[in-house]
Write a structure and sequence with these properties.
- By secondary structure, the chain is of the alpha+beta class.
- It has five helices and twelve strands.
- A seven-stranded antiparallel beta sheet has the order 1-2-3-6-7-10-11, with no helix packed on it.
- The chain is elongated and about 90 Å long.
- The chain starts with a helix and ends with a helix.
């Protein structure tokens, strides 16, 4: 099932090469049966033949764009989610793609839905196991595991509940012991393969507005546009 869900993304990636091979086979068949000679002898110009191939390529590019930008990203997200939750019994789904994970006295809510510019946010609830009281609530843009096998949170902010007040902290990174399989962190990772073109563009603008590195995402965005344009070119 995981492989089947990944097929649309794979198909979108190989479509330009498939169109090139299809065009070669099609034109080769016409040449083998001397049909190109008949067309040229009938007054059909090379420009007209190329234009017909271009129109075919444009139609295929539109179909490819629909699959690559609307169908493949959603299936890719679901495939990652399904694989991670199958491999980790500690994780549970709630609502629209939200995963709950427990690590000792910490409870993580990892959201794979996108609300505006906030992509894949991570909420951290710290519970006092002695009285089941809420010690603190934290929010991070994403999470990773460092070389010391500890959680690392990016753009982390935390509210700590004391007896008579609440203190708020905003720090770039915080660390907590990690007891979970790091595969669950795939749910927090923003992957270009799981974003449509418009979502990827908005994510790039989000990174830039927060003065974060967006070079790799920009390369992925323009490569995707070039790939779609390349379908029509390959056909010609």
């Amino acid at each position: 099932m995981y492989t089947a869900l990944k097929l649309p993304r794979f198909a979108g990636g190989v479509l330009p090469v498939s169109v090139l091979l299809g065009g070669l086979l099609g034109m080769g068949a016409l040449a083998t049966h001397s049909e190109l000679i008949v067309l040229r002898a009938s007054g059909v110009s090379l420009l007209r033949i190329g234009r017909a191939a271009l129109y075919t390529g444009i139609v295929l590019a539109v179909i490819g764009a629909i699959v690559a930008e609307n169908i493949a990203p959603q299936l890719d997200r679901y495939a990652r989610q399904m694989k991670t939750l199958t491999k980790n019994s500690e994780a549970r789904m709630a609502g629209r793609g939200s995963a709950w994970i427990r690590d000792g006295n910490l409870f993580f809510n990892i959201s794979s839905t996108k609300d505006g510019m906030g992509f894949d946010g991570v909420y951290i609830f710290n519970i006092n196991q002695a009285n089941n009281g809420l010690v603190s609530i934290g929010k991070a843009r994403s999470a990773n595991v460092n070389v010391f096998n500890e959680w690392t949170f990016d753009d982390y902010g935390e509210s700590v509940f004391l007896d008579d007040e609440t203190q708020t902290y905003n720090v770039p990174t915080t660390l907590e012991p990690n007891k979970l399989n790091s595969d669950v962190l795939e749910l927090t990772e923003v992957r270009t393969s799981s974003l449509g073109g418009f979502e990827l563009y908005r994510y790039i603008q989000y990174l830039k507005s927060n003065e974060l590195d967006a070079d790799e995402d920009e390369i992925a965005f323009w490569s995707r546009l070039a790939g779609l344009a390349g379908i029509a070119i390959m056909c010609v």
